[in-house]
Batch of 4 targets.
Target 1
Amino acid sequence: MRIHKIRRANATDLDDVHRWRNDPMARPMYLNTAEIPREIHRQWFSDSLHNPLRQMYIGIADDGRKIGICRFDYLPAETTAEVFLTLNPEMRGMGLSSELLRMSIDTLSEPLGPDTRLWAKIRKQNVPSVRCFLAAGFQQCSHKEDWVFFTRSL
Ligand SMILES: CC(C)(COP(=O)(O)OP(=O)(O)OC[C@H]1O[C@@H](n2cnc3c(N)ncnc32)[C@H](O)[C@@H]1OP(=O)(O)O)[C@@H](O)C(=O)NCCC(=O)NCCS
């Protein structure tokens, strides 16, 4: 299985992203571990698609299946962007995550300029995520309580 392409998220991804976000294996890895009701998600997703400071990319496999979503939240005042990655549960454990992350970073568009620093906050026990971010060129920069922080330049 390989990643065929990366494209911007659009309204057709609403329900897939909701399902991936609410997956019982994924939820404990987020800051907000609660199940997200569909209406709350629908509003958030719709706002996100129109938010110029948020970019969301979907990876598509060579068989056409959606691999997952990579999201960047840009903070212009700090010239940083926080990165979030969630795979389709059906596509996990296939070694696709770091490639999705790298390809999404390579696809980033304005206003994220070349001096933007990327960072991610990951639960210590989230071994696949830690390995994924390291493989995509991130380095651990600090840690606090249950979380480790990773950073990378563009
Ligand atoms: C984190 C996540 C994106 C990783 O994707 P994945 O498909 O599970 O992981 P991959 O198959 O790409 O493997 C990534 C690395 O973790 C390792 N790994 C995968 N599953 C593992 C497991 N259960 N235990 C230990 N290591 C594991 C792989 O061997 C690989 O390491 P390597 O490159 O050194 O060989 C995915 O599990 C996910 O969506 N989790 C829920 C959301 C989340 O935690 N997001 C991260 C916070 S932003």
Target 2
Amino acid sequence: MSSNSRNFSKAAEKISFDEKHRKTIQFNISRYDTAVSKGMARYKNVELAKDHAAAIKRDVLNNWGKYLIQFEENISSRGVEVLWATDAKEATLLIENILKENNAKLLVKSKSMTTEEIELNETAEKLGCESVETDLGEFIVQVAGERPYHIVTPAMHKSKEDIAKLFNEKFNTPPESTPEELTEYVRQVLRKKYTIAEVGVTGANFLIADIGGISVTENEGNGLMTTAFPKVHIVIAGIEKIIPEMSQLGLFYPLLAAHGTGQQMTAYNTIFTGPRTKNEVDGPEKMYVILLDNGRTNVFADDEAYESLACIRCGACLNGCPVYKTIGGYTYDTTYSGPIGSVLTPFLKGFKDFSHLSFASTLCGKCVEVCPVRIPLTDILLVNRRKTVEQNLRPVAEKTIMKGFQFISANRKGFDFFSGKLKNIGTFAFNYFGWGPKRILPKFTNKSFSEQYKDKKLKN
Ligand code: SF4
């Protein structure tokens, strides 16, 4: 068993019984559920919309190279420098060069999980460049010295009281501040940062092939501010974010908003097509797009898992997952958590250290039901479990017990050889050391069914 797997089990066991954590998550997810049911009700036929979106994303995967090249050609023609990064290390080097070239001392950043994947904030800080999160949730977790807890709502694990306390400690704001007052405070802090930052960094919700555009959707206007003032705009995007045509945003925007937050549309939807032109007064003078692989082509190479690249990062599978709702985002210790994180991470960061996540699922199927692009998440989790066993990555004790169980239960005589008492000791030990002492297993009777049947027959 890897140390990651052991840490995961320990952390999961601890947080599962943390009542405050559970209460906060239940409250926030129940608000999400109410909003999403309203969002879904706006659709005449949401299943048809999902079919359509799923088909487009499968077309993308079947013609991935073609659309990426089309995107690169179109956006480059307007003066954007497109850079390809095989992994996080290459992406980091590219960013370092850009920051150095532009003598950057401050960068502002809108919410992007891809930048979390490559630990952009740490890279910038090492170069002496302050990196400031501008999404409110990301700002809160940055101030708290944490990572995003959820791919859409980074501070979902914090109550408004937690945040007021945090801000009081860090910024000396009144401890009884309301969410509105705290938001206003952050707004004032960020306004100053936007105007003096040399570099603005965004992710991309969609890379649009036919026009060579970057689509960023957000609710706070911070993405726009991040790109309006700084002289340099860096986009860091996973290569799976491509869609063929701009017209398809008419399908994807509402689908992403409805599944992500229950909104009809996200408040700000911007398409960036290049740096400022001669007659424009704002916007960046230089624009770079870093297209990141970082293990995505490993997923693509796998016939049984490649569909997970269709993900549009709406977060619905996390919110629906009973395991995520119990253990929370940090237990996974990965950039992407929940069902999609459990599917992708072994491919992105290696089965050796992350295959245990394939087992962090009840396989109830809720994630598949809610996914707007119809990714068969539970099927892929099962595939990953099989790969884990094939690669000999399960603990020796588990393998031995399973082999023993297989042997004993193969015929009735073998199963009846042990008394109920012995069987109970065996399952207690397996449970205690394997699944954890909090799980209560049913008890074996002292005599098996066939023994009881025989006794009854003799009596009669
Ligand atoms: S796998 Fe589906 S439900 Fe989960 S984040 Fe991706 S698109 Fe949303």
Target 3
Amino acid sequence: MLTLYHAPQSRSSRILWLLEELDAEYDIKTVSIRRRDPAAEGPVAPMIGARDPQNVHPHGKVPALVHDGVTIFESAAVVLYLTDAFPRNRIGPGVGDPLRGPYLSWLAYYTGVMEPAFTAAMLGLKGTDSTIAWAPVDDVLAHVEAALARGPYVLGETFSGADVLVGSVYILFMGAPLLPRTDLRAAYVERLTARPAYRRAQAKDGATA
Ligand SMILES: N[C@@H](CCC(=O)N[C@@H](CS)C(=O)NCC(=O)O)C(=O)O
């Protein structure tokens, strides 16, 4: 039994997308989460709402997954867990596959470099390559987009769980000041959002309160 702890239009929405890509059977447990106050302006907005006591995530966040009684949390861990547990079309290249190393690198890069770089840029935090554990957001975008230029996916020809994570940022931020629209970015977003599994997940996602 597989249960996704989910809040509509959040980081768990992309796990819904992945579950659809993998043709997995799953239940959705919708939980409430704290969210930015939509009335607030600026990058540091107060949060409204409260942790949901039914949520198994240690910090009351989403996504979290429970599989046969085992809890998995943190998006990259959830993606790797799912693509290993439900192998399909190299969406998660397995051990022995030449794409396994690049796949693991992209999952860790997403969590350890790309998300912090975007968050830091949104908060206006300044650093240099040697003083932060990640890289400046422009360098991150250059790295991702060099891969996409070879593409069409970050692993090359193969769509993977890494695109679910990296692509979710492009889908969310396209056209925002941090991510002005370019042909390459728009084509990537279009390629991802046209996938039938993405559309099924969107239909299941639901609206925020
Ligand atoms: N590093 C975590 C971040 C999870 C996260 O921050 N999720 C947000 C939703 S997009 C959340 O649950 N926020 C509620 C809160 O912080 O209380 C992951 O990637 O899984």
Target 4
Amino acid sequence: MTGPTTPAALVTGGAGGLGRAFARRLAARGYGVVIADRDADGAAEVATEVGGTPVTADVSRPEQTVAAVRAALDAYGRLDVVALNAGIGSGLAATDPLDLEAYRRVVGVNQDAVVYGVDAALPHLRGAGGRIVVTASLAGLVPMPADPLYSLTKTAVVGYVRALGQPLADLGVTITALCPGFADTAILGPLREPLAGMGMPLMTPDEVGDAFLAVLDGGRPGEAWFVQPGRDPEPYGFRGVPGPRGPAAGAGVPA
Ligand SMILES: NC(=O)c1ccc[n+]([C@@H]2O[C@H](COP(=O)([O-])OP(=O)(O)OC[C@H]3O[C@@H](n4cnc5c(N)ncnc54)[C@H](O)[C@@H]3O)[C@@H](O)[C@H]2O)c1
């Protein structure tokens, strides 16, 4: 039974490995969960499993992100948690010639969709203790030479979350980034075998799902939490940038 007293969550990329783990955990906590994915069958399957609501949406299109938010409001009458999680690899290696379509695609899903998701959800989250968790990546904290365009987008969203931390907190909304290392999901594609061959430990989606809950419960505005095999997830400690020298020292230095 759902209604305005049931908390509601939206998970983009909810049909994928990590999104499904997030959706299961949110449903287990009593959330009504909207599963938004461009994969209609996958979204329907996860929604059936968690008793949620499927939405077919390409979140790199702003109007389809708005429709996904609207679906949560229509189904549950409110919105409390938004997991902006849809993502893809670029498919381009570092020295490949630039494929403009592939470039626009990876920026569209990994970066634009986060901007669209925050914008669409914010009016419904403000003042109500809402939370936004953006699935970035360890590739947003350290370079990922195997896919520099992926690293570009994930670094961008980490910067976006950090910059939005305080302004959204002022509205009563907490935004955080989740930065997992490699996890065993479809996104790894052809990278999976070489990674396994190198002895790289791959996390299970459930491990990342537990980290998602840790960030949801304990993440503070603008934090980016790393998630690594065998370690407890924690906020990454960014090294401060030295301020200016001279008489104007202390003025105009971003926090
Ligand atoms: N698996 C990893 O190793 C890993 C590590 C760090 C970060 N991440 C990030 O985690 C997130 C989830 O990825 P995953 O590992 O579950 O991969 P996945 O491929 O299993 O899931 C990604 C999901 O996003 C959906 N999707 C892609 N483009 C979309 C679009 N335009 N609109 C709507 N849905 C779209 C896909 O259909 C899929 O269901 C991504 O942002 C990814 O970059 C993954």
